[in-house]
Specification:
Shape: globular
Strand content: under 5%
Radius of gyration: 10 Å
Structural class: mainly alpha
Distance between the termini: 16 Å
Order of helices and strands: HHH
Largest sheet: none
Helix content: 55-70%
Number of strands: 0
Length: 53
């Protein structure tokens, strides 16, 4: 399983929330094997803010 930095996670989450790009499109854009981590990051960010990442 790949490890992603907090900065990268925040960048992807903000792009999802601001630009309304889908999980799958973002995972392809950033060459991630799955969109599942992005979904988890967005949920965590919405629940706990930056500290959730």
């Amino acid at each position: 399983m790949a490890k992603y930095s907090e900065g990268f996670k925040l960048k992807v989450v903000q792009e999802y929330l601001q630009d309304k790009l889908g999980y799958k499109l973002l995972s392809k854009k950033y060459e991630m094997p799955s969109s599942t981590p992005i979904e988890q990051w967005v949920r965590a960010y919405k629940a706990f803010g930056k500290e959730g990442l």
